[in-house]
Amino acid sequence: QVQLVESGGGLVQAGGSLRLSCERSGRTFSDYPLGWFRQAPGKGREFVASISRSGTYTLYADSVKGRFTISRDNSKNLMYLQMNSLKPEDTAVYYCAARRTVALSQVIRTIGEVDYWGQGTQVTVSS
Length: 127
Fold this sequence. Notes:
mainly beta; 7-stranded mixed beta sheet; 4-stranded antiparallel beta sheet
């Protein structure tokens, strides 16, 4: 099966930065568009960012535009989320996500499109 493992979460002060990583094992990494979702305490899971199979196309939630950058290195089976200018509102468990069998240019847009989830990594931003 497809296995996704997140890392890089932790505690950071407001205004600081973190880089999350998602590592995949199984099929060829480039076969899957990938994305990041997050779930804050007491709230539902929400979309953060996504990236196409080739890395050419990206999509960001309005709440993180200009602060977060999604990228991938298919040769290393890794996806990244660079998070800058972090705010307390960014505190959440962050989940790596993947979708199977879509066109090269497509990106993940909704929770319903996700076929595989990682187990999550905690990001806590203090004020």
